[in-house]
Design a protein that fits this description.
32% helix; 254 residues; disordered N terminus; alpha+beta
Length: 254
């Protein structure tokens, strides 16, 4: 009996792991990695942003990376709707499932920054189902005890008749001043109101929308690169999967 149990338990975990990996593949395969642009840099506007100053006030050695993809979406969808779908896919998908489960179970609030210590948390979300369906969470809300919305900007000019380029974003800070890791994610939507060659089912005008996920991290306690060295490639691999599932959720709105 002990032998049967000893061999069955690893088999169950292996099967569960394979099932989880299959779900991840099914969730992201619509967004091929080869179509995504990647860079070890971030936009200047993000680099000098309030959120980066909050998480890296001493200008310690940064870790920068960004990934982006341009997709054709209905011209009637607003920037905030796109960002809301992306946040839902990013935090509510299969890629983030294990981390989400642990954070929900422990319910620890792990984000602490002196720059915002006197600003109360406006809302707390421990489940994707609690997130607003058609708008971003409010400023200074806390997601899963880790990500605090420190800034956001949403353009209201996204309409079928809009001919002006514009950009919207939301910043989510994580980490703490007294820890060895802090940073901020910026999810950005930018568009040029240029009609796409493809049309959606309702023959509505479509526009090319660029979706970008930029990250700025650092060691707040020491002015040195984040350690260990394996952390950077692991982060980039995981971030790419999260980005792909976020975009996949946006594409469901087509």
């Amino acid at each position: 009996m002990k032998t049967i149990i000893a061999t069955s338990i690893p088999a169950v975990f292996a099967a569960a792991g394979l099932y989880h990996l299959r779900n991840i593949y099914n969730a992201v395969h619509r967004v091929p990695e080869e179509n995504i642009s990647f860079s070890f840099s971030i936009p200047k506007t993000f680099q000098t942003s309030t959120s980066v100053k909050i998480t890296n006030p001493q200008s310690h050695v940064p870790l920068h990376d960004s990934r982006s993809l341009t997709v054709a979406l209905p011209g009637s969808i607003s920037d905030e709707e796109i960002l809301t779908h992306f946040v839902k896919g990013f935090f509510g998908g299969h890629v983030f499932r294990l981390e989400r489960s642990v954070l929900r179970a422990t319910r620890n609030e792990m984000t602490r920054f002196k720059a915002v210590e006197n600003i109360p948390v406006s809302a707390k979300y421990w489940s994707v189902d609690e997130l607003p369906e058609d708008e971003l969470p409010p400023l200074h809300s806390l997601l899963f005890g880790v990500w605090r919305i420190t800034d956001k900007h949403v353009e209201n000019r996204a309409s079928q008749n809009d001919s002006l380029p514009h950009q919207s974003y939301v910043d989510l800070a994580f980490g703490a001043d007294d820890f060895y890791l802090a940073g901020v994610h910026r999810f950005t939507v930018s568009r040029e109101a240029v009609e796409s060659k493809t049309q959606n089912k309702s023959d509505d005008k479509t526009v090319d929308v660029k979706i970008e996920f930029s990250h700025a991290g650092c060691n707040p306690r020491k002015n040195e690169r984040l350690k260990p060295d394996i952390l950077e490639p692991l982060h980039n691999w995981y971030a790419m999967l999260l980005f792909r599932e976020g975009v996949a959720e946006v594409l469901k709105a087509e």
